[in-house]
């Protein structure tokens, strides 16, 4: 793998990760409504799910993933349903802060698993990885170490990108302190979560 090809792949993955979509909207909605920690954990889950997909693409298991597409569909609908449930709950919470701000280990883990389900619930993502790799990288000449490097790049790019969105959304949440602003925040974040869940389910 040449340095030029490696840098080109990094640029392509960064652009794809930074482009607004269900993953980005999920992180932003969590950050605005529940703070940085929840948003970042959702971003970590997205990175973990994407690492699984890129590994499958590297191993040439795209056909196998398509055969068991029903597993991805279950994950997709489960993630979409949970996201919409959170959105409805937040929309109805008036001016009170979401109970998601009560940080417990069990509830924090939900944000991580939500991120994984959002990432793995997108079967088209593995096709993206499988199509972009051969265009930039020479898979036939790739060593095991280079494969690990590719996975590490995908994880690093996702964590960095989602981390930036999480920081920005988390900072925005501190502005919502008055009851009126909290109500607006809950309505905005709840609507965004419901919309994102519906978009994921419909794709």
Summary of the model, kept short:
By secondary structure, the chain is an all-alpha fold. The protein is built from 9 helices and no strands.
- Element pattern in H and E: HHHHHHHHH
| Helix-and-strand structural type | mainly alpha
Q: What is the tally of beta strands?
A: 0
What composes the largest sheet?
Answer: none
Count of alpha/pi helices = 9
Shape designation: globular
Radius of gyration: 18 Å
Report the average pLDDT across residues.
Answer: 75
Low-pLDDT stretches are 95-106
What is the CA–CA distance across the termini? 34 Å
Query: Which percent range fits the helix content?
Result: over 70%
**Beta-strand percentage?**
under 5%
If you had to describe this structure to a student in words, what would you say it looks like?
It is built from 9 helices and no strands. The chain is mainly α. The longest helix has 30 residues, at 144-173.
